[in-house]
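Re-running the complex after MR caught last week's input typo. The corrected sequence lines follow. Everything else is unchanged.
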Amino acid sequence: MCLAVPGKIVSIDESNPDLKMAKVNFGGVMKEICIQWLPDANVGEYVLAHVGFALNKIDEKDAEDTLKILREMGDLNEEEFKSESI
Amino acid sequence: MKYVDEFRNLDAAKSIADKIRAITKHKWNIMEICGGQTHTIMKYNVEELLPPEINLIHGPGCPVCVTPLELIDKAINIASRADVIFTSFGDMLRVPGSKMDLLAVKAIGGNVKMVYSPLDAVKIAEQNPDKKVVFFAVGFETTAPANAMSVFEASKRGIKNYSILCSHVLVPPAIEALLSSKDNLIQGFLAAGHVCTVMGYEDYIPLSRRYKIPIVVTGFEPVDILQGIFMTVKQLEEKRFEVENQYSRVVTKQGNIAAKNLLNEIFDVVDRKWRGIGTIPKSGFGLKEKYAGYDAEKIFSLENIIVEESPLCIAGLVLQGLKKPMECSQFGKTCTPENPLGAPMVSSEGACAAYFHYGKR
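Corrected-run output:
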């Protein structure tokens, strides 16, 4: 049940100050997601969403660092880690 | 999909498994708390990649599984009333109560609706002022802020016909209950990454120190889980016990402060009954007195419904790692995902259902 999915913010609607919403693209599927708990979220950033709420932004640098550690662990081919952005 | 595919890479998984094999000198029992992680482990056959010394124990972190039978019966009681629209996440609808499930209530005319988000339930309440709209608020700390927001919004907008049937559970008290059991086998934990995205991991530091046990906050993709296991085994072999964070791309030490503030506004920490385990002190959220008008148990006077679990089910032993699912005499016979006797066979995230679906029999 704690499934949460990464998606990219496409637009932000701040008309309700207590319920800031965003249109988020999850691999081609668009959904309205509440981003009230992420005061500094911007269009183009990735968030991790769960039952209609963004729990946090995904830190691009930290994600890269994790992958870098993995590469160093296994001397992996750079190409294998490239992913298509949505 | 970005931030998913690269953490499902098979070569990366194999290379971390090699590293785990290289550092493992002793036998270790490691528990992944979260049912979502159990599901990944079964789906991607993560256990096959590990050296035989590493035994993964599948923890109680499946909210569908640990929701007491009693609460399912309460949900069915509410959903069967003519003046109610009962709303829920999809996975609670087919959890059997002692006589039927919520889908069966719908089949005989009950107004049961599946929603994607608790805010959808608030919208249904707003659109149906002549009905009482109840949302089945289950889940761990990951889901609690969303459910809290539904009560906050209903209250702010003056919506009086909305309430929640609340059964929120918390991870750290469950870890403590497992570690303080005299039969405890667990030597290291993979903490649930999405719970920690909300709550941070400060609460795990005293647990790690008190019980001298490594706790590694871990993500949900196979590569995340293998890296979490690597970090746990490394600590164990080096005789260290610390809280480490494998899932730093979304988890910070403090967690999401705005979400935690909302939890404090709406909920108190209360004792909670866990299916298959029993009551764990201070292990859940209940609505604060200020929001009692949104508490379905109070509105519908359901405090007197008390239901016992099947005596044949050994869920408690499975959830503590003392038995594997297939060591149960009922597994796959009288107990299947279609006709579950107990909690871990109910949801696909439950240990028994995961073993059943992925052929570990």
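None of the earlier attempt is carried over here. DSSP finds two helices and five strands in chain A. Residues 5-81 of chain A form a domain with the SH3 type barrels. fold (CATH 2.30.30.140).
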